[in-house]
Amino acid sequence: MHIEKFNPSIVDKKWQKFWEDNKIFHSSSSKNQPKYYCLEMFPYPSGKIHMGHVRNYTLGDVIANYKRLKGFNVLHPMGWDSFGMPAENAAIQKKLHPKEWTLNNIETMKCQLKLLGFSIDWEREISTCDENYYKHQQKFFLDLLKKGLVYKKESQVNWDPVDNTVLANEQVIDGKGWRSGAPVVQKKLSQWFFKITAFAEELNSSINTLNEWPDKVKLMQKNWIGKSVGCELYFKLKDINKKINIFTTRPDTIFGATFLALAVDHPLSKKYINNKDYLNFKENCYKTGNTDEAIAKTEKIGFKTNFKAEHPFIKNKTLPIFFSNFVLMEYGSGAIFGCPAHDQRDLDFALKYKLDVIPVIAPSDQNISKFYIKDEAYTGDGIIINSDFLNGLNVSDGKEKIIKEIEKKKFGTAKTSYRLRDWGISRQRYWGCPIPVMYNEKNEVIPVPENELPVKLPSDINFDQPGNPLDAHPTWKKAKCSKTGKSLIRETDTLDTFVDSSWYFLRFCSSNSNKKGFLTDDIKYWMPVDQYIGGVEHAILHLLYSRFFARAITKNTDFEIKEPFKGLFTQGMVCHKTFKNKENEWVFPEDVIEKDGQFYEKKTMNQIQVGSSESMSKSKKNVIDPQTVIDLYGADAVRWFVLSDSPPDRDIQWSEEGISGSYKFIQKIWSVSEMINKIEEKNKFNNLETLQCKKLINILIKDITYNIEKFHFNVAIAKFYEFINFMSKLLHENKAEKDIFKDIFKNFLILIYPFTPHVASECWEKNFKSNQIHTSKWPDFDSEIIKDRTINIVIQINGKKKSLINMKPNQKEELIFSNCLKIDKIKKLISEKKIIKKIYVKNKLVNIVVK
Fold first, then answer.
1. Span between the terminal Cα atoms of the chain, in Å
2. 847 burial via Cβ count (<10 Å: 0-12, 13-18, 19+)
3. CA 328, CA 293: separation in Å to the nearest integer?
4. Which residue of 442, 453, 567, 700 is surrounded by the most CB atoms within 10 Å?
5. How far apart are CA 527 and CA 35, in angstroms?
6. Count of alpha carbons within 13 Å of 269, Cβ hemisphere only?
7. What are phi and psi of 533, to 5 degrees?
């Protein structure tokens, strides 16, 4: 039987045009249907889509298509996170305006995404650099200013000397800028902040309600918020009327305290503003960086002051006071008491400066008299020692007792603290959302009137000078007060781009509204996002900021949002081997050929060094261009491949064999479709085959439904392979009855449509004379038909397959062996032989070892 090959280059375009022309994927404005909001994290328009984008958006598209077939009104939008430093860098390098570069990239990436047939509602498309987007963001800023959730203060900041901008702590990776890779330095600047700490307890406790989030992400959020229960202690300074407040979670170790360490910006540092040694020390500390990672890797150093603190519980004992590089003003009160015996950092410091080390907790299974600390702090649980009235207590009871004593003697008070700091949102760059405030001659903040929004960026910008281009603009920052006519100066900092992405999911609900960022009726219907999909690298910054911002901007409104994302799924990376030439330079995969198990550079035929498989990245050139692969194999094959080999939350390895296999599977679906069309009417199933087919399609419906709901897409794909192979076998054996097979194939096409919509639509039209597969109802399975499900178990003799036995699953081993031995073929093969061993692999095979 001759069958024409499936031609994706023609079919893909045909259906993509049909879907777009007929607005198939536009969400309904009616709010009568049950809703489903499916959203993938929107991309930065860097130039071209990459395989990570393909995987992310394919995962979401399967869910969106599936939910439409289940009868939901689906919102599946797309937008662009289009402000940011890369556009400025490109403007400098390529002599292009950031806006031109960005809009060109958006156009390119949008065309590429459309090539994959994603069921996106493009009418709701947004871009954060569009004034129709950021004018609402500026209004939110002013609203938060009125609510007291925005303020400005001078602050020690992480300064990226290459990008010439401030970085949030979360944007500093191993002491370096997350984009530039340059070592970050400390600098004091006047900055705008969002008061995220006002929601610290709510953000922390609400994590427990996020039942559809990965546990690892919830843990990362909790750790970043860093709730700590302890107490604040007051240490009096000897000989002067001052005290130092210290928050601690380990008041039970107070009797082991041998020094105090302060941040270099602690108020006590004002006593040393003319001390050159101290100022040099302070300068060195600023080079360390103020992130946990940077501090952990830096040698702990101190500057000893002339001050001493009185120990609150030990009469006549004083503690030396140091300024140190491992204490930060942003955490707690910028001061700690050091207990070297039970904190490794404190111990390293104490040994360096020859300070006392006093153990106050000993392991409960050790002889206390022989317990001592040498060069490793003891951080475990145990029994309190050397601590007066706490002796003999365990750590938990010791904490409770010492806090009561501290409050009784008024040495301090019980307190809950958070690691979370307020969010610094000022960035010293051009390509960002302008902050809508101005300053008068007294440097007082004057909010821009709402009727003057948006504050637009100037188009005539000069990048030739270092620093913030808005600062150097000759006219833009000069403004006049609309009420008094007096001269004002605009704020030249722009907003951190994480602000842009902290509310875009709300904008999608009302993307056509010009008066408001979102309409209450719309967010009441669409929010929360039912399924949010993106990389785990956004587990702290983006997700935490979005949770805060959604709360902050809807606070005291008709509809307060607590959690914007009901379900969260974090997908794995797409990986590829890395290649280097003899000059130790990275080489693109398409420039490499394989011959006799060796790899060579195409141009030179020099041997290539093959490295490990890593996440695809432009820097290591181990990337595959999605458009090239789509042109070769078609959209459905690419979609199928990125869903197939690995669970979606794990990394997937790119391989030519894998994408080629996916293409062959798409061809097989088409082949089965064509063969069904050519079945002769006289073909009839026997009753057993009819029952088996009906049973298998019902099992498939049940399995695919379950595995889509559980995000087990790779398992679903394995089930499709099994089923299409079964159908193909019956067709080739000429055992297919047309009406029954068409009915079964109809359900199969609906099931596979969310995964491979182009070939499913084409087969549907060919077999059922309709272009409306997208309006079909997701099939239900008949539990009665699949109740008596049976399986084939392979029978081996001495490891070689000899027969099959059909039985219900999970039967007792003895019963299976007994039935095997009743089969005539097996009886003959083992007659007059001795059975030495019986091996059973549950529900799969029986191996009878004989001699």
1. 47
2. middle
3. 13
4. 700
5. 9
6. 21
7. -130, 135
